[in-house]
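W.,

You were right to be curious about this one. When I first looked at the sequence I had no strong expectations either way, so I just let the prediction run and decided to look at it fresh. Below is the sequence, 313 residues in total, followed by the output.
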Amino acid sequence: MNEITVGIIGLALLLVLFTTGIELAFAMALVGFCGFAYLNGISSAMNLLGRDVFDVITNYGYTVFPLFILMGQIGLNAGIAVRLYNAAHKFVGHIPGGLAMATVMGATGFKAICGSSAATSATFASVAVPEMDRYGYDRRLSTGIVATVGTLGVIIPPSVVLIIYGILTEQSIGQLFLAGLIPGLMIALFFVGIIYVWAKMNPSIAPKSDRATWAERLRSLPEVIWILLVFLVVVGGIMQGYLTPSEAGAFGTFALLVLSLVKRDITVKGYIKSPWYGRNASHADCRLHDSWSLHRCHEYPSVRSRLDRGSSS
């Protein structure tokens, strides 16, 4: 079989593996390895596998993955996500669909310090869904909005997905962050608008909650301001070229940790748990990138030929 036929078979097999529930990285690595071994021999495939794994582990640029994910985990264990949700709740909770709107607004704010979309959805599933259940929200709305807000993390910086895309395509991560910021905020605004219209058309699915006083609203603002400052320094530093993504991730993680310690928001248990979960999430991102490198050598002959020329030289 020629390369095109092998590539088509590989893509079809990859789709079949996706339906089995196997992790994306392992599916791509398996298909890429088998396809490359068929076209170039098992020895070349083993050499490519070892080289890709070594490159991912030793590449300084990939330190950005655990840093941004660790920053989000520290924010989670310090209770920042809860306070962002409560702040949004105080401002819009009395509006029809206000708790669902607060979920969107809180998740958008939390995404400014969390690089993982899955962590954002999981966090607000534990925070927002019980509160919406308490006020009698329709379960389709409460669970649907929590699942949906996680998708904002794909384009709102600092997005690990955009960082991976920038590394793979050799594009400016700062420009990718700038390109994703406005569309991400627009999508969040559309979510809020759709929730409001839906709640006005059918008030029973999203009842109003208690109205907060202006004093309570103002007391909730400092938490939002601190997060905004960290976001502006981290993302603004990358966009302006003052910080590399790895430096920005390190600065944001350190600033958030110091802030949490000074305010005594994080416990010893939360401090220990943050790098543990951050490690697991960053391992998944590195596996995905490594498997993509292996898979594209099988699917795209031009990439493979460039690698072969690089090895021979």
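Here's what jumped out at me. Residues 298-313 have pLDDT under 50 and may be disordered. And, maybe more interesting for your project: Residues 94 and 210 are 6 Å apart (CA to CA).

Coffee later to discuss?

I.
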